[in-house]
Every structure is written in C-alpha cells, then in structure tokens.
Amino acid sequence: MNALLWTSDAMAKAMRAATQGALPEGVTGLSIDSRTIAAGEAYFAIKGDVHDGHGFVEAALKAGAGLAVVEAAQRHKFPADAPLLVVDDVLAGLVMLAHASRARLGARIIAVTGSVGKTSTKEALRRVLAAQGETHASVASFNNHWGVPLSLARCPATARFAVFEIGMNHAGEITPLVTMVRPHVAVITTVEPVHLEFFAGIEAIADAKAEIFLGVEPGGAVVLNRDNAQYARLAQQAKNAGISRILSFGADRKSDARLLAVSLHATCSAVHADIFNHDITYKIGMPGRHMAMNSLAVLAGASLLGADITRAALSLSQLEAPSGRGMRRVLEVGHGEATLIDESYNANPASMAAALNVLGQAQVGPHGRRIAILGDMLELGPSGPQLHRGLAEAIKANRIDLVYCCGPLMRNLWDALSAGRRGGYAESSAALEAQAVAAVRAGDAIMVKGSLGSKMKVIVSALERRFPGKAAQEEAV
C-alpha cells in the first residue's frame, strides 16, 4: 500500500473543513479528475471554466476515492454517509492545504518561469535531481492558479528536492503562486514577446516575470538568462526584491554558467560549458540550441540546491521530450519511414523559431523533405500578423522544404512564402488534415506546431493513425 500523503485530520485542520461520513485514516494522493483518480486519493470538486467538479463526486467515490472535498453550499447533494471534507470554497481550501504543505517541507525548492522553456526546464530539473534524492515536481504544465497549489499540496513531506513551474499571461498572476511556493532558487528561462495581447510591451512582460522574486526565501538565489535583452531589467528587479545572489547563464562571457561550445545533432546535442568554474562536457537527450542553453540553467539551479554538478550533467543524457513538446515518432510509410516531431502543445514566436531550427537539423532520407505543419500562434495582439509573416525567414534559414498552414493568422505566413515552399493552406487544422496526411512520403521529417487553441494535435493524431510507427530512437553522439 502507498504511504499516506495526508491524514484526514491534517487535511481538515489545514483547510478548516467540517467532516462528514466515515473518513479514512488518510489519503495517498490528491486529484481533481474523477476519470483518472486512483483508489485512496482525495477528490477536490473544483469549479472549472467548463465543468463543476461537484458533478463528478459520485463517480470519484465509486472509483475508490478515499474522500471528497466539497463546498458547503452543495453539501446537500451528497448522501449523509459520504466521506466528505466540507469547505466554503474548494479552490481556496486547496490553496490552504498547499500552504500547509509548504510549512511542513524540509525540501530544497526551485521554481521556474519564463516565456519559453518552462516545462522542459522543469522536467530536466526533475530528471537530474531525482538521481540524487527523492524529488517531487509539477506534472505536465500545472503552472496556474489551481495547478501550482495542487502540485504543492501533492509534495510528500519526505522530499529532498521539489520543482515547481509557474506560469502567467497577465500581470499579478505569479505573485500569489510564488509566495505560496517560497522557493530557495528561482529561474527565469527567458523573456519573449508572448501574451502580447495582455501587455503593453516586452518590458511589461519582464516585470510580470520578475514577480517570481517576491517569493524567494531569504538568502535564496535567482538564475537569469544573460543573453536575453531583459537581463539587466530583471537583475535590477531582483536587487529591488532584496536578492543578493543573482547568477546568470548563457553564451555571454560574463555568464556564471557559460556555454563554451555546442554540437547540434538530429536528436540530441553535445555541450561544453563552464558551470560555476566547473569545466563540463555532457550530452543532452533532446535536440536544439535552446535546449543546450536551458541545460545551463538546469545545472546552475541544481548546483544551488546542493546537487552534484557532474552527476547532474550525466543525467541530462536521459532527457526525453514529452508529448506535444518535441516528442518524436517513426512513421511507417509504405516500405520506408518518416519522422514525426510533435510540437503541437503550444507555440509563440520564440518556440516556433526553436522548433523550426530543430526541424532544420532533422535527418531526412534520400528523397525526403523537411515539412512544417503550422497553426496560429495566439495571444499576440496587434503584432500577430507581422510575427506570423516573420517566420518566413526562419523557414528559409532552416531549409524547410514544404510548409502547410492553417488558421487566419497563419495566412500571413502563407502569403509571405515562396511558391516552391507552399504545401497547402486551410482555415482550420481539421480542414488541413487530409492534405497534410496525403503529402507524407518515406524519408520525410514532419514537424507539427501551433498554439493549443489551434488544435494541431488533430493532425498529429491523424498522422499516427495513418502511419502507425514507434517512438524514435536517440542518435548517438
């Protein structure tokens, strides 16, 4: 049996909850999804944008949930003997439990934010730290007003290290999250023109990211991208927040974690770096210069938490891209194979440029082509059309042979492409699906990317159905 994460008494006390029914001694985990809840976990009936979790309490309990957390106003909907913790507001109760979790932790904690690379950097930190002690980290991209408290409340008291991802698309969103997490180290991967629809400019985005400094523990440290144009602004904001340990990473000669050389390969990279005066050469199990750059932040952050840098560098060879964020599959096409690079989870100008660079490095067969299938990048405000047109330069520089576009914003890129690179255009991913699938042939490398709202996973799924294959194997350096 799994160890108890929380006793029922401790949960009730932390959330100031009333109790109902025969509660278990405790719970082994926390869930907000009745479809995936495991036996013995607590189910939190959170009200989402689409569904009210109270409608799924019965299903969660039938699936084996040890108890459910519900709001007092809906308590009457459930049997008198149902095992419940009753609070005024379920999300507020989860936040209170998260604060209680942080109070009991002895772990060294790191928080990651940034316009691009948050999740991959968080996953890399999880990988390198887990090799050196019990490590807890946010799952998927649980980085918002419910994802962060859920991730923190899920952290076992026995953890040695904890890694949290913190996101935002409006000013003021990071502050309550980071003051909950209270990290010993904060990392900002980079500041780019993302969510411009909600900000006056790039400096305003930097200021919003700088909110992460407000929760750093006394004596803590921050790790900043010295190559980024917002470095000086961020460093000053860190000083203003009372942080004296400001470390940097990048190719800049003044970087504390400095990239000396990088060799880019189709599925991995070899890096030579100076990390806090340690000369290290290592392999990263994911391709792209952006991954090499973020690996510097990973090693710097791990070192500041007390991990061994050499062992951490060795662990980077085991990195694997998660679904929708660079995961590769081999597609069986006729009597040959093609490579699918799934970047369908999200997109912005910086991550799109990085993904096109990775596609440019991808190996193709004798008659293969590099094909980009691209959907709209959202939340860019008035700059959207221009930023989409601007991708034409990256497509040319990375020797992309064919481009398929969907969405009204991607029409701007389509119009900017040379005739020879135009594969096809449609108003939506569903409308583009048939012609994109029909274009694939043996030897091709295909990259699919767009903002989540562009629904590019539709095309990824169609390619996987039409050409069943297997996970791509790493290329040896």
Written overview of the protein:
There is one protein chain. The protein is an alpha/beta fold. It folds into 3 domains: 6-88, 3-Layer(aba) Sandwich (Udp-n-acetylmuramoylalanyl-d-glutamate--2,6- Diaminopimelate Ligase, Chain: A, domain 1), CATH 3.40.1390.10; 105-318, 3-Layer(aba) Sandwich (UDP-N-acetylmuramoyl-L-alanine:D-glutamate ligase), CATH 3.40.1190; 327-468, Mur ligase, C-terminal domain (Protein-Tyrosine Phosphatase, Chain A, Alpha-Beta Complex). The protein contains 16 helices and 23 strands. Helix 3 (90-104) crosses helix 5 and helix 4 (118-130) packs across helix 9 (289-304). The longest helix has 16 residues, at 289-304. It starts with 5 loop residues before the first strand and ends in a 6-residue tail after the last strand.
Please describe the topology of this protein:
Elements: E1 6-7, H1 8-15, E2 18-20, E3 26-27, E4 29-31, E5 41-44, H2 57-62, E6 67-71, E7 84-87, H3 90-104, E8 108-113, H4 118-130, E9 135-137, H5 147-153, E10 161-165, H6 174-181, E11 185-188, H7 202-209, E12 221-225, H8 231-240, E13 245-250, E14 257-264, E15 269-275, E16 278-284, H9 289-304, H10 309-315, E17 327-333, E18 336-343, H11 349-361, E19 370-375, H12 384-389, H13 391-397, E20 402-406, H14 410-416, E21 422-426, H15 429-439, E22 445-449, H16 457-466, E23 469-471
Parallel strand pairs: 4-5, 5-6, 6-7, 8-10, 8-11, 9-10, 11-12, 12-13, 13-14, 18-22, 19-20, 19-22, 20-21
Antiparallel strand pairs: 1-3, 2-7, 14-15, 15-16, 17-18, 17-23
